[in-house]
Amino acid sequence: MDAERLDRHGVAEPLGLTWGARDRIRPAMAELHFFTGTMDSGKSTLALQTNHNHAARGRGGRIFTTHDRAGEAILSSRLGLTHDAIEVAPDFDFWRYVVDSLTAGARIDYLVCDEAQFYTTDQIDQLAKVVDELQIDVFAFGILSDFRTRLFPGSARLVELADRMNVLQVEALCWCGKRATHNARTEDGVMVVEGEVIVVGDVDTDDGPPAEVAYEVLCRQHHRRRLTAARARSVALSPEPLPFGS
Questions:
Q1: Cβ–Cβ contacts within 10 Å for residue 121, how many?
Q2: Which ranges of the chain have pLDDT less than 70?
Q3: Do 200 and 177 lie in a common domain?
Q4: Can you tell me the distance from the alpha carbon of 189 to that of 209, in angstroms, rounded to the nearest whole number?
Q5: Exactly one of 115, 160, 187, 212 is catalytic; which is it?
Q6: Helices 121-134 & 153-161, crossing angle to 10 degrees?
Q7: End of a domain among 170, 192, 214?
Q8: Would you put residue 80 in left (φ > 0), alpha (ψ -120 to 50) or beta?
Q9: Which residue from 159, 95, 156 is spatially nearest to 123, judged by alpha carbons?
Q10: Under DSSP, is residue 225 helix (H, G, I), strand (E, B) or coil?
């Protein structure tokens, strides 16, 4: 008689065990996680916290990012936290990197992938392969849509492939106080809806003059009306009626 058979997960296991005992001895199955939210919702902070929690339990991981506001090969949060990271160029191959690292004797239990909206669809497929074939957890963080309200290709592919998709519970707020759902780009203080998709900038603040390129989170209503915080202030001070259509 065979000494083992495949369980319901396709994993070989000894015969004669109850399902509960089999699950206890079966290695945990890796998953592809996708955490998403607007800008200013704490994605990078959560990415850093996720890495800290796993590293504190003795797990070995790698951190990846691209086009971070703080510069190349750095993962940074708006709270001032930073961590060295591996910069993901368009031709970076996650599968090859992980396989080569493991072959060289490195230990990798998980990957933290920030700014995942900028990854190519091929790179998202590579991350899924790392999860399925190597049983390595992947935690991806990114925004869903660009300043034109269109899905980033990388984020769209993550929605299609992720085992778990999590919308961050820390809600970014529009200047009006409603929950922000859209990312707006401003150039010299003026909101734009056309241009290059990837332009590095940060969330605009009230300190100093507006940046040449900045971002602001808005509710759908004010994104549709192109009514940024600066424009709302100028309208409030103007004797002209609000520029709302019928």
A1: 15
A2: 1-28, 68-72, 76, 78-79, 198-211, 237-246
A3: yes
A4: 9
A5: 115
A6: 30
A7: 170
A8: left
A9: 95
A10: coil
- Quote the tokens at residue 126: 């590579």
Residue 2 belongs to what domain range?
1-30
Phi, psi of 129 (to 5 degrees): -65, -40
Q: CA-CA distance, 237 to 231, in Å (whole number)?
A: 10
- What is the model's pTM? 0.72
Number of structural domains the chain divides into:
3
Catalytic annotation on 115?
Answer: yes
Give pLDDT tens digits for 7-44: 444 544 444 434 343 444 345 699 999 999 887 788 88
pLDDT at residue 1, rounded to an integer: 38
Tell me the CATH number at 61: 3.40.50.300
Give me the pLDDT at residue 169, please: 72
